[in-house]
């Protein structure tokens, strides 16, 4: 067999060094404070780890096999479990005892036996809808996961309802209506311009499906929703199949192409789509979208340039890294100029934006994010009051970093912002993690509980909270209360 040795890529050093192991820890130590009463349920997180060294020097952090994590809060205790997602590619590689998949999303660089395999690593997020839990990656169908054991149940087309070849890793679960809003891009295969918007009802039945074409074969990592319009941003990170077939990057940064935004009617069809455009820019993540009369506001972590410098230009140029800033893009349906207006919302750079999920697509007051303001490489959890512009910050300490937070309402009908923030903290110097519980009303007061992990939760991208009640019933019991705290 081939020796197991990872390359000198900085990805595999320090905090990023591959874990390649699964954990089961019942009753984690609570080293500070106490788990709040009423916090009963499971935080599911998904990330990437490295099953085998690729033997290449071009690995990127968004690749790697899905490692699915759960933190179960039950009667004041928290238990942790992590499991590989047993995708088709994970299973093939486990049998071969080596990497068979090459460059990110590029099947032309796979080992011959994997040339026609499904490419999905299921490494990006967790989704719970209509009683089912899934691990998602945007280039393949969902994989269903057992919510208690994290065993992989299998690849799912949701009862034959996903005719696209792919499915987003940024679905929007409306916890008020229990609808699932989702999409698939490059939906008829690698390099295709096809995109489809999917709306599923509370029981998981397909309720709307709108196919249309993107201006180019974009990377559509995230989207946003409102009560009437679904917002699809297209940034010029574009797939060129001639390049892919030669073993090149799956996406290339095209600064001479425009940013386009399509507004698709939430309950209508493709004839109602409206288009907007502006200069090249990019983003991974949307915080929210809201409709205000004839205007749709899209709040996102915007890069005035290329958000992924490892994707070069068609000329092979590496573009300089640019910081993401929370920005409001406004699209006016009453105007015919199709322009995108831009307004900065925060001077500090930030990523992984979240809200109280009950307010996705609805007028909202609070945003939560990872803020980058420390020269020492540490990061903090922020809460932005969109009404006053005030940013509250909780920092884990020098050198330590936070991962994306999860807002949990204190009660199903709590006011907006009244709840907890669950924050995975990377104790970089100690090579292990904590899970911190903040009171979302006062994050600067510091954690109400710090739950210690003896292991490293090395990288997670996104996740979701499933209360004990939701797990039992399959439905979210949340209600909208008017106003915020
Ligand atoms: C992104 C993340 C991905 C991916 C493509 O943040 C884009 C953007 C975690 O995986 O495959
Ligand atoms: Fe993402």
From TrEMBL:
GO terms for biological process: carotene catabolic process. One of its GO terms (molecular function) is metal ion binding. Its EC number is 1.13.11.-. Transmembrane segments: none annotated. InterPro entries: Carotenoid_Oase (IPR004294). Binds 1 Fe(2+) ion per subunit. Fe cation binds at residues 170, 221, 285, 462. Belongs to the carotenoid oxygenase family. PANTHER family: BETA-CAROTENE DIOXYGENASE, CAROTENOID 9,10(9',10')-CLEAVAGE DIOXYGENASE 1. This is Dioxygenase.
